[in-house]
């Protein structure tokens, strides 16, 4: 495959992986916890490096999953203790992320891990970091990592589809019929953690938030069906990668930044033109209603 094709494939995998998972967060009104986890998993990556002295994918995923779940547990504990949910997210997010930043300073400059790399990423370099087995190259490591995480997330969603759907729309009913609501909650946090750390090299922790939230919010304006929303969200994430890469080539700007901007442009267009929830459609319905009222009055 060509360099451009690898970039598009990696960007699309980021968009699909984060989009599908993020759609569930949007429906559960937990979008901002994605922001928290996307930053606090930095601590998990650093701790995994201290233990293994390696930046290989599996230790990073395990460390990120542990810290991601820890973030959710701490936020839940503070929320249950009377602290407002947004304040709880802010306290946990800043504390764990700051600890990760401090610990990075002990690693040194000879390791490919720093705050700028974790926050911003650089998708332009990922096609050159290939998986080598017995002297044979099997493509970029990012493709294998993102593909594995996507497969993992989709498997969990398919296995627990009904439980996720019920606990998302009616938690009280889910508890009453025996659905393990807390297990589903922490499973979702694990999925978010995996998606975030797998996307670090591609778009970084900050820009992955756009992929986690904006495609899901856009799909929410287009459909009222749970399954269709997951599909649309993943598709919008992939479309954003293609549009963003085209914008980056045209204007010679950051690729990952352009992909994030593309998510915002698609959301804006959907917000205006959505058949049911769009501003234009609402204006036309109000105009029609006013005309009908005028006819009745006459």
Automatic annotation (TrEMBL):
It is found in: Cell membrane. Pfam families: ABC-3. Its main location: membrane. Signal peptide: none annotated. InterPro entries: ABC_BtuC-like (IPR037294), ABC_TroCD (IPR001626). It comes from the Bacteria. The chain crosses the membrane at residues 6-26, 33-51, 57-75, 87-107, 141-161, 173-197, 203-222, 229-248, 254-273. The keyword DNA-binding does not apply. CDD domains: TM_ABC_iron-siderophores_like. One of its GO terms (cellular component) is ATP-binding cassette (ABC) transporter complex. Keywords: Cell membrane, Membrane, Transmembrane, Transmembrane helix, Transport. It is a multi-pass membrane protein. GO terms for biological process: response to zinc ion; transmembrane transport. SUPFAM superfamilies: ABC transporter involved in vitamin B12 uptake, BtuC. Belongs to the ABC-3 integral membrane protein family. This is Iron ABC transporter. It comes from Pontibacillus litoralis JSM 072002.
